[in-house]
Amino acid sequence: MSGLNFMHRTTTTFLYFAILLLIPAGVVQGDEAKPKPKKSSEKDFSIQITEEVRAALMPLIDSIRDAKVSRATVRMLTDSVMSGEVVESREATFQIAAKNPGKFTVYLKEPEQRTRVYCDGKQMVAAMAPDAFFRLPNAVSIQKAVTALTVPLGPYPEPVLALTMAGCDPSITFVAAMKSIEVVDRKPFKGKIPAIHLHGVQADAVTWDLWVSDDEKDPQPLRLLIDMTPMLAASDQVHVPAGFSYQVRYDFLTWRVKGDLKDNLFTFKPAKGATEYESLEDYFQQIAGSKGYHPLLGQPAPRFKTQTVDQRKFDLKSLKGRVVVVDFWTTTCKACLAGMPTVKKVTDRYSKKGVVLLEINTGQDLETVQDFLKDTGIEMNILMDEEGKIADGFIADAIPQTVLIGKDGLVESVHLGFAGEEALEKRLTDELDVLTVGGRIASGKPAKATKSKSKKD
Which own/partner contact pairs does 21-27 have at CB distance under 8 Å and 24+ positions apart? Predict the structure, then answer.
């Protein structure tokens, strides 16, 4: 399927693995030798930090290490820059919660992928999609989840986990194997919040900038900016062209280490019909060999309510009895943008026959989409799916994904990827010829899918 924009599922996943493998062993340390993180102190550090740095960093480190619970929402932005110009920018959101000892959940929401890890202290499960999961051999401690989690969660998850997981020791991540740490300034963060700006240089030359609220009694992380370019450049596994840089930014939208969390937050309950895979490798192998069957084919289309890009209310049931084309996209998905003009051109030809096109932007905020439409001049029926809930309902684990719903409300066809203008136009035209006269598409008729081995098998 050409043009399919997978995150974690195909080559990008293995790039993530490559990046993680490049981190020197001295930076990633397990907790087997330390059943309980001990009280951090200056003598534990691999470098001699100044009193100013200690006073700025230690309150945050101690509050996380001593916490019984934690919960945070963190926005992740990754920028690939070539000669000063951003050539690719991606946005995702982490939702992280932990209950010391041993319970945690990490949910990474990206425009094209949803990944969630659950650990209830006894077993650990990774859900790679709403309908796909696998069980890890053993539950791990919170500290080991921070430094050595084997589930792909973005390009460099350790720092954000170290700042959001109750009971871990952030000094292992932020102080061990460092060349230097210094206080840059104490300017208000975004001009409003009293803050301390710290700058660190790791042994592998990766640099980070951390902004912490200037509140000794209740310190909180505000932003973490990591420049991973030196680590990539030093490796013989990744070619880094001259003028290229790669940065990861974490913005802490909500963060707390107080209160209580219910245990069911850390317990995995598979969705009806979900497939259990034997391992992460088995999951990747199976989806790589998938023949394109979609579990919604022949099923009633998921109902949803949302708002348009100009903030008008929308309910799918208002289109009852009409043929609906649902197209999931993001502003950063090149394959999505390449296919949109063809989808619009074909559906416009059938508008007098009751065909409606719904372009659903998933995983991005309203302002981002409005700015994009203003810059590009695109005019379509744009619906918002900021939290990705509509995409989850349609099992849109990869985009572009275009779903055709018949007059009877059943899902008749699902297009994955972008095979080119000519192929897309022909297929869509053929399908709408059938659906507009009340016909059924063969692919939309219920059929048995070939799935990976599951527990009940």
Answer: 21/237, 22/204, 22/231, 22/232, 22/234, 22/235, 22/237, 22/238, 23/156, 23/158, 23/204, 23/231, 24/177, 24/203, 24/204, 26/176, 26/177, 26/203, 27/173, 27/176, 27/177, 27/202, 27/203, 27/204
